[in-house]
Design brief:
single chain, 95 residues, alpha+beta, 4-stranded mixed β-sheet, 2 helices
């Protein structure tokens, strides 16, 4: 799985970078299903996480999470991402 993480409007510090890597381990069960995971983090008034996941069967999923707190925004996005990956995995297994 190829990962790209981009910050817009601020620089990611070491603690935030480690937090992102730790949270992304949560979806490691799907590493063989995902070709590319692109994470864009914007910081204006609040933190906004936008993630696009490309699956090996050609489907893409786009999820977001937003909050004033970096960790809370990351957790919201990860909850949605985890559910989206599970749904895609189930859909493919049904076929």
């Amino acid at each position: 799985m190829e990962k790209s993480i981009n910050a817009v409007g601020f620089t990611i510090n070491q603690k935030q970078s480690e937090m992102i890597e730790t949270k992304l381990k949560r979806v490691s069960y799907a590493e063989d299903l995902i070709i590319r995971l692109s994470l864009k983090i914007k910081h204006e008034k609040s933190f906004s996480f936008e993630t696009t996941v490309s699956f090996r069967w050609g489907t893409q999923a786009h999820v977001t999470g937003e909050d004033d707190d970096f960790a809370a925004a990351l957790n919201k996005m990860m909850d949605v991402l985890d559910n989206k990956i599970k749904k895609e995995k189930d859909k493919v297994q049904e076929k």
